[in-house]
Design brief:
The complex is a heterodimer of chains A (410) and B (260). With 410 residues, chain A is an all-alpha fold. Chain A has helices at 2-21, 25-52, 54-57, 68-91, 102-121, 127-136, 143-166, 171-197, 209-236, 243-274, 279-289, 294-316, 321-348, 370-393, 401-409. In chain A, helix 4 (68-91) packs antiparallel against helix 5, helix 4 crosses helix 13 (321-348) and helix 8 crosses helix 9 (209-236). The two termini of chain A are 40 Å apart. Chain B is built from nine helices and ten strands. Classes of the chains: A mainly alpha (410), B alpha+beta (260).
Chain lengths: 410, 260
């Protein structure tokens, strides 16, 4: 029996390898490109941390201790939560229309967490100590500890869920583990919001807004990732989209419209309350509205991240997959800068601003370094590579019995 | 376009599915089971939200006004410093003493002197404000550190670093309301003022290096739990106002400021 399963595994690996190799020229070029980005990113991170020193290689400094690498981590893990939540609507909470998106979404949720871990692993100064002391010296009042630990658990649950989803007739077990995955993802995501929200010395972040916003933002990111990667996957596999999947994406598109409207209302109120919230908060709001981050805020965050996708999605009536794909691609790009703004703008206001001293009278600046860009691209490379390989290894996440039942019932 | 019909079709589909529940029971949990999962989920969520809840409790419970915490010193000795701001002449001897005593590299600092220019003033045009770690009674850095690498010393209340536990996530740097922390490459950990505990107090020396080096007696260091100490007397007089920096944060600092 053991020999039989071993032979089966070897056969599976062999056929998966053949599917990857026969993926076509463009496919293989992108596999190579993303692989290269991943290797360069890891190399840049290792060089920054262990050879050059992060003080020289990264753009962060005492007053702005975390920046694009943390915002990239936030971007990936928040996307993971979103993917997990949106996929759970179908195969855990029983809304049938969403069932066809389950498997690929859970897979995407796993690879986005891993991409996040990769980037933060190359940001933290002593990543090896983290592995040891997170376990033997935990601080239960630290949001960061909860966030990291819960995302770790979420990764385990999602992986088990994915394995069950791959096996026919294991949906019940997948749903049980999936529910645990959803709970840990939501707890981790809100704790990540809490990391910033609990900083009572930073008025731009402080307050109950961020944990709620992170959850909302996660769902939007999840929707954008699902539309983008599902359309892309059908091109890669040279298949036309089956009707249940198309119907599922239409539902996701409608949900995205609703969530975009909600996030717009959230953003309006965040800016309004911040603009009257004391000198430090007002400085942060000014930096976004009319200061050095105005283009990033109005051009990328508001126009690219909210208004244009909303118009495009309304134009598509959540049916035209091409327009939805473009909208989701723009969102995926712009949401990245939303995260960057959130992390950096919270730190650029000097801590002693109200003291009126020379040293803390101007906004701090942050400039990206080459190392940081390469590490970010390494994370993107990992995500792209894992997605492309996943499509072939898991054979396009072929629909299981549940979808056939779905089709039959139509 | 299929748009108009799709809503209706979806409704019909849903009605059909309701009749198919039995058939699908092997694939999806029954309603009863789903309820059980949700109940279990609520319990787990309660536990997992623990970090946030604990943090909230720790903040609310300890936020009291300057007057209130001038009467309450939980440590013995309770180390504190009074900075007599108007005496500072920006000679920077305190900074030099700190650097040499604690091996502070040129890219970091444990204490500096800030300058406030007041051109409309009729006497001195400059105000000099020394700053350092405030050794807070409710330290945001300690709460946020995931590995307890930074902690409040149970005996004397100094916010300390356990270098070997520091993962270098820099969350304490984000959390500190006083910009008192930096990453020290040689120590491979965050570095900050420890009231010279490692370099002097632990060796029996009674005063901190910056205070000892100050020619104008700006920095008065001592034990607040001792009513006979200078810091106690300076803080407990009513003639001259005493304040702390960024009181609104609620960190309850142990560095006090006064003039005269």
């Amino acid at each position: 029996m053991a020999r039989f399963s071993k032979t089966l595994m070897i056969l599976n690996i062999k056929s998966a390898y053949e599917r990857v190799v026969s993926g076509g020229r463009v496919y293989l070029i992108f596999v190579g490109l993303f692989g290269l980005l991943l290797l360069i990113g890891i190399g840049a991170g290792i060089h920054a941390l262990f050879i050059a020193g992060s003080r020289h290689a990264y753009g962060t400094y005492r007053e702005v201790p975390v920046a694009i690498l943390i915002s990239t981590y936030v971007y990936f893990v928040v996307a993971s939560t979103g993917l997990c939540l949106i996929s759970s609507i179908g195969h855990i909470f029983g809304v049938r229309e969403y069932v066809p998106i389950a498997k690929r979404s859970v897979y995407l949720s796993i690879i986005t967490i891993l991409a996040g871990f990769l980037v933060i692993g190359l940001e933290i100064e002593n990543p090896f100590r983290m592995v040891v002391y997170n376990i033997i010296s935990p601080n239960f009042s630290s949001n960061i500890w909860w966030m990291g630990t819960l995302y770790g658990f979420a990764l385990v649950f999602l992986t088990i869920e994915f394995i069950f989803l791959l096996k026919e007739g294991k949906h019940k077990k997948a749903a049980i583990v999936g529910l645990l995955g959803v709970i840990t993802e939501v707890a981790a995501n809100t704790n990540l919001g809490g990391v910033f929200a609990m900083m009572h010395g930073r008025s731009y972040w402080y307050g109950p807004y961020l944990p709620v916003y992170f959850l909302l933002s996660a769902m939007i990111t999840g929707c954008a990732f699902i539309i983008f990667f599902f359309v892309l996957s059908h091109w890669i596999n040279r298949k036309t989209m089956d009707q249940p999947t198309e119907k599922a994406l239409e539902s996701v598109g409608k949900l995205t419209i609703l969530l975009l409207i909600i996030v717009m209302i959230f953003t309006v109120w965040k800016m309004l309350t911040t603009s009257v919230g004391g000198a430090s908060a007002i400085e942060a709001a000014n930096a976004l509205i009319s200061g050095p981050y105005a283009f990033s805020f109005w051009g990328i965050e508001v126009l690219g991240g909210m208004i244009i996708p909303l118009i495009l999605l309304l134009m598509s009536r959540a049916k035209n997959m091409m327009i939805m794909f473009v909208a989701s691609a723009i969102m995926i790009f712009c949401i990245f800068f939303m995260r960057l703004d959130l992390v950096v703008v919270g730190q650029i206001v000097p801590l002693y601003l109200e003291l009126g001293v020379n040293e803390y009278s101007r906004l701090h600046t942050y400039t990206l370094s080459v190392h940081e860009i390469l590490v970010v691209l390494g994370g993107v490379g990992f995500c792209g590579l894992a997605f492309l390989l996943g499509e072939k290894v898991f054979d396009g996440f072929q629909q299981t019995q549940s979808v056939h039942i779905f089709e039959e019932e139509k | 376009m299929r748009c108009e019909g799709s809503g209706r079709n979806a409704m019909i589909d849903n009605l059909r599915y309701q009749g198919k529940n039995e058939k699908e029971s092997s694939e999806y949990p029954l309603d009863q089971e789903r309820r059980e999962f949700l109940k279990m989920g609520l319990v787990i969520t309660g536990v997992l939200a623990g970090g946030t809840v604990l943090s909230l409790i720790s903040n609310v419970g300890k936020a009291y006004s300057l007057d209130a915490y001038r009467r309450k010193y939980p440590y013995k000795p309770h180390y504190a410093m009074v900075i007599r701001q108007d005496r500072c002449i920006d000679c920077k001897r305190c900074m030099e003493a700190c650097v040499s005593t604690n091996r502070v590299p040129d890219y970091g600092w444990r204490t500096i002197i800030l300058k406030r220019e007041v051109p409309e003033s009729i006497d001195q045009k400059w105000d000099f404000i020394p700053i350092l770690c405030n050794q807070c009674n409710n330290p945001p850095c300690v709460r946020t550190c995931p590995t307890r690498a930074t902690y409040k010393d149970k005996t004397n209340g100094i916010v300390m670093m356990d270098n070997k536990k520091c993962i270098g996530c820099k969350s304490c740097m984000m959390a500190c309301p006083y910009d008192a922390r930096y990453y020290n490459e040689a120590r491979k950990a965050i570095d900050k003022c420890d009231f010279c505990l490692e370099a002097r107090l632990s060796k029996g020396i009674k005063n901190v290096a910056c205070s000892e080096a100050c020619p104008a007696d700006v920095r008065v260091f001592g034990d607040l739990s001792d009513p006979g100490s200078r810091v106690y007397k300076l803080i407990h007089q009513l003639q001259k106002p005493v304040w702390v920096l960024r009181e609104e944060v609620g960190a309850n600092p142990n560095i006090f400021y006064m003039k005269g």
